[in-house]
Structures are given as C-alpha cells and as structure tokens.
Amino acid sequence: MELADRLETKFRLDANQKKALNKLGLFSVHDLLFHFPARYSDVSKVKLITELTPGETATVFGKISKLKTRKGFRSKIPMAEGEIEDSSGKIKIIWFNQAYLAKMIHSGENVKLTGHVTKGKYGLYLANPEFERTPDISIDAHNTLFSAKNEKESGKGFSYPIYHETRGITSKWFYHAIEKILREKTLDNIEDYIPEDILKKYKLPTLKTSLIWIHKPKNMRDAESARKRFAFEEVFCIQLERQHDKFEYRKNKSFQIKADEKDKEEFVKRFPFTPTNSQKKSVQTILEDMGKSFPMSRLLEGDVGSGKTAVAATASYMVVKQRPNGQGFGNLQTAYMAPTEILAIQHFESFIQYFKHLPMNIGLITGSGCRKFPSKVNPSGWTDISRAQLLKWTANGEIPILIGTHALIQKSIKFKNLALVVIDEQHRFGTAQRRKLVRKDNIGPHLLSMTATPIPRTLALTIYGDLDLSLLDEMPAGRKQIITEIITPNKRNETYEKIREELKNGRQLYVICPRIEEPDPTKEMAVQAKSAIAEAKRLKKEVFREYEIEVLHSKMSKQKKEAVMKDFTENKIHILCATSVVEVGVNVPNATMIIIEGAERFGLAQLHQLRGRVIRSNHQAYCYVFADSKSQKTSRNGSHKKYKNGRSCSH
C-alpha cells in the first residue's frame, strides 16, 4: 500500500462512507494517516450500571431515554431528567439548572455519561453528568475486541482512539483502517522531513514512530511524545514559511529614511512626558531599519500604557519630513491602521496635537466617514470631507498621514509615496496584505506592527517570525502599579464606598459588563450575565445617584459613541458603563478605576487589556474584579490579580 493510493482502491467503502470521508477531506492513505485521534478513551474506567456505588464519580455507556424537563417541587429550579440503560440495567439521570439539555440530546441516542453517583429518595441517580454522543456503542469495558489482551494487562486498560467523525464513519472504522495500513508496512519507506540532528536535539521521535504512537499508543507517554513531535513540526513549518516571507519581502526596494537627530529631539520634546530608555532605544532601532535599502519589518511589543503610540508618531514624523526620491517637493506618506473606529478617531486627535506646528495634512478614514486636518475655515481644527475627495488627495500625495481602520487597505485607496505602514493591534494583517501595498516599481513600505497583547517571546517569534522584535519593557516615570482586587458579593458595598471617595477627588470610573442588554428569559441558551444598560440604570438608581452615568457599546451610532467619549474625556460623565468595546487603546488619563463584572467571561489577555484603560496617568489606579461566587479562588481572576504586567501574564 502506497501513501498516494486512493482510499476507495484499498478499502471496501459504501456510498455513505465515501460521502463521510469526502466531508472530512480524506481521499488518500496519506490523508488517513494524518487524521489524528482527538483523544483516547480508557475503556477500563467504564463501569456497568449495576456496579455503581453511591458517592463515586463514574463513566457509563448506554442508550438514553425518557428525557423531559420539569421544575423542583419546592425549589422551583429547572431541571432535565432521563434514564440511561446498558446491558446490565438502568439508572436515572438529573441535570439541575440545565433543563435545555433535554432538548439537546434525543431519546434513543447512544451516549457516554460521566457524573456523580448520588443516592436519592427513590434510588441511585447520576447528578449533572457530562455527556458525549457515541455513535458506536459496541466500544465498552466488556467488549472482547477492545478489552485487555491478557490478565497481566487488565489493570492498565486499553486506550481506544477517538477520531473526529461524521455520519457514515466511526472511530471503530478508523481504528481498523489504520491497523490495516500499518500491517501492510506502508510506513517503511516514509521520508522524515525534519532533519535528524533537530530530532536528536529536541528528543523527538521519527515520523514513522510518531504515526504509530499517535494511532496505537501503548501508554499515554507514547501518545504525548507523538503529539509533541507533530506540534513541533507545525511550529517549525510556520517559522520556515515566515522566514521565507521575510526573505522575499526584503527583495523589494524601499524609501531610505535619513534620520536627523536634531529634528527627532525637537519632535520628542512635544510629548507631555519624558520618553523612557526603552522608547528611545526602540525609536533608534526603527530609524536605523528605515535607513536600509530594503523595507523594515518590525514588531513593537509593549505593555498597555508603555507609550507605543509615541514611538509610532516619532517614526511617522521622520518619514513625512522627507521628500520622495529625487524630488524637491512633496512628502513621503504614512498609513496608520487602528483596530476600532473609537481608537482611530483618538489617534487622529493625538496626531493633530503632535503635528499642528507643521504645515501638514492629516486624514482620517473609517467605515462611517472621512475627516481632514487642518480645516480651511478653522486652521486649528478638522473638517468632514467626502470620501472621494480624501482618496483623490491621498493618491496625489497631498495627505502625508492617513489614519483609519481596515478601510485603509481597500482596493480603492491608492498612495503616491507610501513609505511607512503602522498597524496597531492587528493580528490579521499578514504578508498577503503587505504584498498589496508594494508599488508596481517594487518599492515596498516599511512596516511597524504594534501589540500590547501579552505574547511569550518564543510564540511571538513564531507567529511574527517575519518581523524583528522590539520590546517596551518600561513604564513612563511616576506611573504607579495598579491595585487589583477580587471582590466577592458580600464586599460590594464596601468597594462602592472606596470608589465614591475617589470620585469625590475628581477621578472617573469604567464599569465593564459582558452583555449590552439583559438576556431574553425565553431563550434557554442565552448567556446569563450583567448588561451595560441595566447596570447603568441600577448604579444611578441605587448606588451613585449624585454622579453622571452613561453607556457605551458597539450598537450605538458613530456620532453617539463620539459624543459619549468626548463627554467622558472632559469629565462631564463620571461613570461609563461599557462592554469590551473599550478594550483596546482608549485613553482617558483621569479614569483611574475600573470594575469588571462577569470577569470569568473574558480571557486573561482581554482582562489585562481592560485593566490597561486605567494606567494612563500618575494617579493611583484600581481594578475591581467583581466575582459572582463568594469564593475568591477563581483561577483566571486569581492570575489576573497576581500578574502586574503583560510579560509575566503571557508566561
């Protein structure tokens, strides 16, 4: 049997099996070998229903029936009930507070249940078991085909591989098909594409050994070794691809930026803070890169509030001050792409402050409109302009700095002399988009990608292997460490009083909620979590009556969002109830407190980004994580409290 052989020529397949294999994208023997098990089921742990004893957590296979929903007689809590039956008997199942499960599972389905065996008034039942559908119920602890082969092995059990399945094909079919492939010595001539010295260095099994171990492991250690090898292989191939992309991109020419030290120092003095050493070092490295004959590709990684925007503004300034090659007029151009409209507008306002002393046009383009600075009517302010007019000026080179969202990389936008592209928190801006920005005369722009998402260095070098890495590992002078506290329900009122004291001192507060509106009570699967709109009403009515409270979320119009952010920035609004729309980059230095409701619904990196909204000044910042339970020991929230910066958080 050869790796390239079609499956239908080597296996007897009916119409349903062919259809199922096509759906899974499996056409050849090679495809089948690289269709790895999702997990392994240790069938020695499966029990017969008659063997169950109260108090233990057990797994049973069987057919489910008599599914229904009801409410507790006294407690009125919703629940789902049913029965599971195997060859030895049957047992009742109860899911408390999960009535919807009665509609997700259907009577007559074969399932594997793992739950707590509980003794009730009317006998034993499985309480809140986890369930998995198992199309092939013949795989159980007492099936001779899958039981231990001899008494010596009986204590070890048998790891049966469970594959990704679809209707018409089962894990049992995969098991026997793989066994046939291995039996015919198909792997004897397989070529390993990872060099032998690398395998030895990282103690990885060969490709042949890995394929055998992943499909037929003798123990979990073998299976883990095989998975480790294939995971390494994936990362290794990504790195090779990224290095190839980097090599190819460097074949393009670029605009060589000549750095004027005096000009740079004059510009940096305009910042309302003294640059840190890591900012100075990063600016210097970026300017050195942009002075080379090939395009720069650099990732600037820095914690929230570490001053990445200031570094990008300095690089932009040095670019737009320079004339295009061989010309005594015009400017080179910079494109600055932000992840959200709110942040794009904020950067536009910031750049106006940085560049207002220069005769420089700055444009803003988002999905909902375009702006230009300066306005002919008001030279110190901006004006709304038509999209067509902005595109025309950009194509003519009259707009040296264009800030926007993803609208920046649309086909309709043409730059005359694009020399620098700055990407803020954009993980989807890859080599394909970068190639589109290369001009017909093979002049490619310099690329500066920025992220505050905490990424371990090794992972950053894999994902962004085509980019050189710069780190901002210092915070501006005088910036205090944020105080993070996990607040249980019984300490809410006490915390509100602490917040009130800070509000009296003129500080402001964010309240972050997972939902915009209250969940629909008629929908069983609706996420039960606090909503920004309802929480704003509650806080105004019950807690902070004397303060102005507003709401910010993604369903609001652009004009309404801008008006709310403007009022919040000017301290006309004291408390802002929002969704995670404020997660990235929003900068209000006077807002020094943040409450995060339903923190378990946010990822660790997301929590860290949200917390970063209040580390924008030299005032003491506070982050209050409001937990739903009375225990403080929720692992993610505990980690959030423990880690003080993104670097430690990522590790």
From TrEMBL:
PROSITE patterns the UniProt entry points to: HELICASE_ATP_BIND_1 (PS51192), HELICASE_CTER (PS51194)
Q: Is Amino-acid biosynthesis there in the keyword field?
A: no
Cite a single GO BP annotation.
DNA repair
Q: Where is this region: Disordered?
A: 632-651
Q: Which GO terms describe its molecular function?
A: ATP binding; DNA binding; DNA helicase activity; hydrolase activity
Q: Where is the composition biased (Basic residues)?
A: 638-651
Domain Helicase ATP-binding intervals:
289-472
Domain named Helicase C-terminal: which ranges?
491-651
Pfam families per UniProt: DEAD (PF00270), Helicase_C (PF00271), RecG_wedge (PF17191)
Q: Does the keyword ATP-binding apply?
A: yes
Q: Which domain of life is it from?
A: Bacteria
Q: Which keywords does this Swiss-Prot/TrEMBL entry list?
A: ATP-binding, DNA damage, DNA repair, DNA-binding, Helicase, Hydrolase, Nucleotide-binding
Q: What is this protein called?
A: ATP-dependent DNA helicase RecG
Species name for this entry? Candidatus Nomurabacteria bacterium GW2011_GWA2_35_80
